[in-house]
Amino acid sequence: MKTAFKRTLLSALVVPFALAAQSASAVMITDWGYEVDSVFSNWTQTTGDGSVTATDSDRKLSWGVGSGPQSSVSITDVAEPSGLMTNGGFVDGGVFTHTNNTLPASGAALASFDLTSTLTLTPFAPPGDPLPPTSTKFISFFNETLNNGNCVDDSVSNCDDIFTIDNFEDLGAVDNGSGGFQFASSFILDDYKYTVFLELIGLAVLDDDACTAAGAASGCVGLLTEEGTANHFDTRFKITAVEVPEPGTLALLGMGLAGLGLARRRKAAKA
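^ PEP-CTERM protein-sorting domain, sequence as received from the core. Prediction below:
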């Protein structure tokens, strides 16, 4: 058997073998169980009467004066054994609530806090062990506005309170296509790259006057919350996946293509 023919035959065998190795790789996980555990930490308060107190295992922060009205922020957790479909729609990730009551100006109020949401994914179809938990931390500032009618432009009450996110640029935010944001994080499992997209509904770029009132830079990102009611903001997330060849498969494929090229060059040189 001639050498050039041997190389051509070897290349012809290697290429399909590489492709077969890729097609025989691990199966994409199509359905996931999930658990979202969120807590507040590192909260601070303004000077004044009373103090910020934490309850529900640091899932709720409350403030007010004595036995009078109380305002609060809270977050709910979610746990489901399945239902998060790869390349499917969003699922519930919990609800962030600001109960915004009118408080005495002399009272202490929440000033800042960290909100950390930890997601644990467990393969359901095909089944597998839980993945290591991943966390997203929102470093947030809060402005308890005076209810004196001197409100920011977009305020719908007397007056809306203001939340801003201090570490927004560090969170991997992308435009969600409807004026809001998604926070994306990726991981590779077997032969697939999975990306989780987290959304907090209502989060948006605030007008400059709201940013100024909150002590934030122009173009800040946050929320306005209406006075005298409970403001609910849903969080949700989804997961996507794309196949990525294993390094060994790429190496085999490269060898095959290189062998074909070498054989063709030698054949051309002898012609």
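Residues 3-23, 249-253 have pLDDT under 50 and may be disordered.
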